[in-house]
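Kindly review both lines to help learners:
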Amino acid sequence: MPRLTETYTVFSNAAGDSARRVFVSIGRRPSFLARVCMFLVAALVFGVALVVLIPIMLFGVFLLGSLWLYVSIRSLFRRAGDPNGVLDQRRNVRVIERD
């Protein structure tokens, strides 16, 4: 067994440091259990986001639809009361000027 004070030579292959980088990156990879836990946490966050966001979006669509319907009905009645509208009660008579 070499002593700590001895020097030794490190041999490298033709690939150089790239082979070492591959082994180091594989060693840093999370374990299977850690990957499963990360997947479950991401799925939980995604599921909660869907449970919260979908009702909010449906409420927004309902609110915008109700507002559009209110404005449409209001403008319909306003146009009906305008001059020459459906609810305009003026008679179309000619005024005769007498001498």
User: Anything to note?
Assistant: Residues 32-81 form the longest helix (50 residues).
